[in-house]
Specification:
The chain is α/β, with parallel strands linked by helices. The chain has one domain: Spore Coat Polysaccharide Biosynthesis Protein SpsA, Chain A. The chain has ten helices and nine strands. Strands 1, 2, 3, 4, 5, 6, 7, 8 and 9 form a nine-stranded mixed beta sheet that branches. Helix 6 packs across helix 7 (176-187). The longest helix has 24 residues, at 233-256. It is globular. The chain starts with 6 loop residues before the first strand and ends with a helix.
């Protein structure tokens, strides 16, 4: 690779000691030389800080202090970053080998693309693969039809795109990534490539597992902000989710064994 742009990765964490070390190791073991990594802990009391301190000499920075939650922590981390390419990795997810290098190579070869995302395995609390996120190419129009085909752990974007469309909106608790993808796609091409870059951990304490049904009302806020009408594909999906959400979540939990 002729150019090695600096990549900034942020991990937000709060009382995730069980998974945090695997997350940190998956970042620090990447075969990419120009990397800065920040861990933003929300004042954990479960021993997470001791794990962070084991790796502090290899981190660009870390803090452990009370914050306003995941979105606040991510924004705080990115405010410290200098990288030309950015991403966040939650403290129960992991990168797969070569992910960062592969993403940088694609963005370097395709300067017109603002964000790239790949495939993501679903893993259980023990790290066993139990499925695959249904990633595919999306767009601003497809996102506003409810086509959220972007696995957040496998998404990487350019700093200039973040400066145009970021930061994350702290009023969102579940759909802050959907909101960001919509803002990104409104102003820049985004691209999916079928390469396995990350693993998303599905476990009983995970936010998307515990309260997944709350995400769609937040997505509705984004849809309305973007001028979405009452009769649309998105509204059809939204109404179906309201009606069938509990059954869908029960089927998903049974299928994933949680």
């Amino acid at each position: 690779m002729e150019k090695t742009p600096l990549v900034s990765i942020v991990t937000p964490s709060f009382n995730q000691r069980q998974y945090l070390e695997k997350t940190i190791q998956s970042v620090l073991s990447q075969d990419y030389p120009a990397l800065e990594y920040f861990v933003i802990d929300g004042g954990s009391s479960d021993g997470s800080v001791e794990i962070i301190k084991k790796y502090q000499d290899r981190l660009a920075g870390w803090v452990s202090e009370p914050d306003q939650g995941q979105t606040d922590a991510i924004n705080k981390g990115f405010s410290m970053c200098r990288g030309e390419i950015m991403a966040w990795l939650n403290s129960d997810d992991v990168y797969l080998p070569g992910a960062i290098r592969s993403a940088v190579e694609f963005l370097t070869a395709n300067p017109e693309v603002g964000m790239v995302y790949g495939d993501t395995d679903l893993i259980d609390s023990e790290g066993r693969v139990i499925g695959r996120f249904n990633a595919r190419q999306t767009s601003y129009q497809r996102l506003l039809r409810g086509g959220v085909y972007i696995p957040q752990p496998a998404a990487f974007w350019r700093r200039e795109l973040w400066e145009r469309a970021g930061p994350l909106d702290p009023s969102f608790y579940f759909a802050m990534d959907y909101d960001l993808w919509v803002k990104f796609a409104r102003v820049s091409p985004i691209r999916y490539i079928p390469r396995l870059w990350a693993a998303f951990r599905v476990h009983s304490e995970g936010k998307t597992t515990v309260a997944d049904a709350h995400c769609w009302p937040e997505m509705l806020r984004v849809y309305r902000r973007e001028g979405g009408g009452i009769i649309s594909v998105f509204m059809g999906k939204y109404l179906l989710r309201l009606l069938l959400g509990p059954l869908w979540n029960w089927i998903k939990r049974k299928r994933l064994g949680i």
